[in-house]
Amino acid sequence: MTTKATNIFEVHSRVDRKTREERNRHKGGVLWLTGLSGAGKSTLAVEVERALFAQGYHVYVLDGDNLRHGLNSNLGFSHEDRTENIRRVGEVAALFAEAGFVCISAFISPYRADREGARKAAGDSFHEIHVKADLATCESRDPKGLYERARRGEIPDFTGISAPYEEPENPKLVVDTASQDVTQSVALVLDYVARNLAFAETTGKT
Amino acid sequence: MTTKATNIFEVHSRVDRKTREERNRHKGGVLWLTGLSGAGKSTLAVEVERALFAQGYHVYVLDGDNLRHGLNSNLGFSHEDRTENIRRVGEVAALFAEAGFVCISAFISPYRADREGARKAAGDSFHEIHVKADLATCESRDPKGLYERARRGEIPDFTGISAPYEEPENPKLVVDTASQDVTQSVALVLDYVARNLAFAETTGKT
Predict the structure, then answer these.
(1) The whole model's pTM is what?
(2) FRET pair for B24, CA 20 to 30 Å: which of A77, A96, A166, B184?
(3) Which residues of chain A register pLDDT less than 70?
């Protein structure tokens, strides 16, 4: 009885990523959007999610909306906590990629070292996308009034004002939202996904 | 230009859970397996994942294998760290449920208060499943030799030996792995999922 039970509860292999991807007809991956506050990361993330979902992709956005009050609710705004915030996002994004999703993360993530951690978590599935707009453009948009508050000194260590933004050195894609509108910006990302994450369909093409 | 840019980068609504579930033809949810070490949580999780995947479900397992070295790599074994471990698992499981997955978590999670936190994160999508085997059975299996080490005093605060296991008071399902084999145990969970998470198909049934 004992021996039998031991054998019975031997662990079998999990459903692997390749099997998931074959069913989904696309690779899993992390689209890591990085850029200044106001550069358009959240908008781009949500619009790309909608478009990819409509195309049949399995896609999910990680951003402040679903992480701030949940997984990262016990983190503040110290440098250490911000690093831990990005570390957790990177690890969760990697899990979603492993589960076969195209996971879009939308966080300023101003430090190269933190983004490098996220890249390591996801491995080859990591796609860094620089959502790029100059500070003046971002500040003029200021959708949440944060730049104004930062200029008044009410928000310490605000990226671009009182804390650095370390631009990606070798991003997979740059989306310039200062000179392109949302439709153009979304199209660039969709094209990138089609080239890098879609499975080639064998029907109807030669 | 400024106004235009501001308007352009207005955030639209994300793909909501209902839309995801309709495409998947099943609800998202968290199957929270709790029980002693050796009760069979991991085996059950992996076997249920395989079976559900084969049935077309979107399903993913969270367990020590994919969390210990990633998201929870900066946690130790103090009571505080164990609580934080379960809190993070609960939050990530809730994200997977929100993304439309059946997320199976397989952790001892011995404390009611910790499981209650996971339940709150996932809301109505939380399904507590007690993977139940008496201590003697679990100890006789001892697949990783942990009970033996715990009895020798080499592992402090080991659930069932030197730390309590607080049984679920009102689990949605009890799977008795001491008296049932894996096939029977898996069938119980599959039946539960079919009754609680599957969408009723309208074709061919009256």
Answers:
(1) 0.92
(2) B184
(3) 1-12, 202-206
